[in-house]
Task: inverse folding
């Protein structure tokens, strides 16, 4: 992977809580963050006594290299938000500049934690669909802005294999968002949900409190049927009698 092909853009713990509907109990679990990039989720939660490991191919680069890349792409990302402002809700953020400020704060928090996190094994260079983790090493895995969002770049088979790998290493998997870059529900969602169900997993689409990209208000939750299933408010399960609409 070339660093020049990456657009680092990090989100905060507060955003993770909303995107994945994370409760206080959830945050006490051993968590894997997949595709976290320069998010401050790991740094903030670790600072509060949480136990989290982040994996991303960007962690092959040094702090200075990542910082330089952030500085290079930041103006363009904010400008792109401004050009496409109608595709977003502006209730949590005032304007594109405010988004940039909040995200830059999160990325700076990540950068300040990065070297110590690497040393502690909290940031690991890895990418789906193969993770260097033991079976059931984590209680919860969260995937932010990777699967389904990049549906044109990642095909349905890769989505399925990635989710099965995540279920191998974690008892529960949550993925947000379920829309693609155009704001449309991913064409991979229904076939992937149906195949996971056929293979014995509990799968459901769950409404979450996060609102930014229009149409992105649900996460996918996947749990092995052999494990206890948590009832979720505003959720729609995939069952033989009534399959979730895609």
Result:
């Amino acid at each position: 992977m070339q660093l020049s092909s990456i657009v680092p853009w990090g989100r905060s713990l507060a955003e993770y809580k909303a995107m994945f509907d994370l409760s206080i109990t959830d945050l006490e679990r051993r968590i894997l963050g997949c595709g976290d990039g320069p998010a401050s989720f790991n740094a903030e939660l670790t600072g509060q006594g949480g136990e989290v490991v982040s994996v991303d191919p960007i962690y092959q680069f040094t702090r200075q290299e990542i910082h330089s890349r952030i500085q290079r792409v930041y103006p363009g990302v904010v400008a792109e938000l401004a050009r496409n402002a109608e595709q977003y809700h502006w209730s949590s953020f005032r304007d594109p500049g405010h988004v940039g400020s909040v995200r830059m704060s999160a990325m700076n928090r990540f950068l300040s934690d990065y070297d110590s996190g690497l040393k502690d094994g909290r940031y690991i260079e890895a990418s789906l669909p193969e993770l260097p983790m033991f079976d059931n090493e984590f209680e919860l895995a969260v995937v932010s802005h990777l699967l389904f969002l990049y549906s044109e770049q990642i095909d349905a088979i890769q989505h399925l294999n990635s989710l099965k790998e995540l279920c191998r290493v974690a008892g529960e998997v949550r993925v947000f968002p379920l829309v693609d870059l155009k704001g449309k529900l991913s064409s991979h969602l229904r076939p992937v949900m149906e195949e996971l169900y056929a293979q014995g997993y509990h799968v459901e689409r769950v409404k979450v409190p996060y609102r930014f990209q229009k149409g992105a208000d649900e996460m996918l939750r996947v749990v092995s049927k052999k494990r206890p299933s948590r009832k979720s408010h505003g959720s729609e399960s995939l069952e033989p009698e009534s399959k979730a609409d895609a």
Observations:
- The domain at 3-237 is CATH 3.40.50.150 (Rossmann fold).
- Residues 227-233, 239-246 have pLDDT under 50 and may be disordered.
- The chain has seven helices and eight strands.
